[in-house]
Amino acid sequence: MDKLFADAVQVLERNWTGNLTIPAKTLYPHQWSWDSCFISIGNSHVDTDRAIKELECLFAAQWKNGMIPSIVFDKKAKTYFPSADFYEIERSENAPKDLGTSGMTQPPMHAIACYYVYKNAQDKAKAAEFLKKAYPRLKKFHRYLATYRDPEGSGTITILHPWESGMDNSPLWDEPLSKIDAKDLPEFERLDTKAVNGASDTIPKDEEYNKFIYLIELMKKHNYDERKMYANFPFKIKDVLFTSIFYVANKFLREIANIIGEDPKEMGTWISKTEKNFYKYFIKDQKEFGVSEENLFYDYDLVQREWIRKKTVASFIPIYTGLMTKEDSQNLVKWIRHSHFCGNDGFCHVPTIPSTDTNEPYFHKSNYWRGPIWVNTNWMIWLGLLKYGYEEEAEAIRSGVFELVKSHGFREYYNPKTGEGLGGKDFSWTSSLVMDMIKRNRKETQMDEGIL
Ligand code: 2M8
User: Which of 117, 197, 211, 339 has the fewest C-beta atoms under 10 angstroms from its C-beta?
Assistant: First the structure.
């Protein structure tokens, strides 16, 4: 374990620019929002200053309306498309004037990361100072999500682009994207194809990619005005993973407010709303929850007015929220342990959860979010299992992740059938979350994740 930990620290060291940690060389040469949160959680075990610097760098790019953008660009880096110029964020009066960012957001892991930076810090006074500075930023971001991304006031969050989910080309988006006609696209050149040295079966297809770009073009036409976009955007989805993280993050933000002596009331309101509506929005038939795989948590498409019942890892992320009853958690764990998801007697390399049910026609063993195993989603499920006391199941996933990185390196994602490492090499969040899985004290984790 010591060697694994030291190797992971080295990866973060190599990807550190002096201000932030890039996800991986060449493929992702900028700062990504939720990546930096996962990275700070890892760094909180070894270097508080670095973790703080990373998050402050991200917060400096926050938009006036509170949105924390998915990408903060390094204008010198040229190996990633779409570039800062492509986004034309100056169309929005909310965008920062002197920084290049994307015009969309990503799952709000930030309050969770800030809490752990404090919790794992030796110098608590310094960490508390950081929390005081971070708190208004975090609250503004959560308020942005609770208003612009939830005009329904439901406590569930709407995404306007597949990239906002963090799971770019998940089969979840196939139906909604199939209804969109990507016309009048500007000329552009994909650079991810070059970065993966032509391994085109590991990244999204051109057809998907064109739709990603088309939706950015549409955001630009709306000058990134959420109210206008909300009225007629063709991609508008209440997302399970995003909302689950929002709920957990609100609990951590409430705890941060308590630590620094601020009023936690607003977070309480957001938490109650999610508790009230989570099942209503994400389960078709609540009485039958978990009886079959057809009745788990599924995203809701606000345009088609239908649940998206594709079997993916997203359906399991609610275990991370703790808002389920013990009985419902049992029903969910039954599917988490199912062989289709690499559980008992599965035909997978190790018992970790792949991004898609391995028995579905849309499963692909090596293509990005269409099948491979990702460490961040496994980390959330690991914590969720611990929260509900499924220690054996949690440990199986933790050991599975260790086995993957030991045998195949700190890769971006892994083939569930063979364990082969895929995508970026020396991937930062894989390394930082492995560090966290090594360092965390199980009992304390159950307290932090369970009581908050
Ligand atoms: C992937 O997303 C970016 C777009 O934001 C891309 O495909 O270029 C996703 O895996 C996302 O979750 C991640 O944050 C990002 C950087 O690691 O890469």
Answer: 197
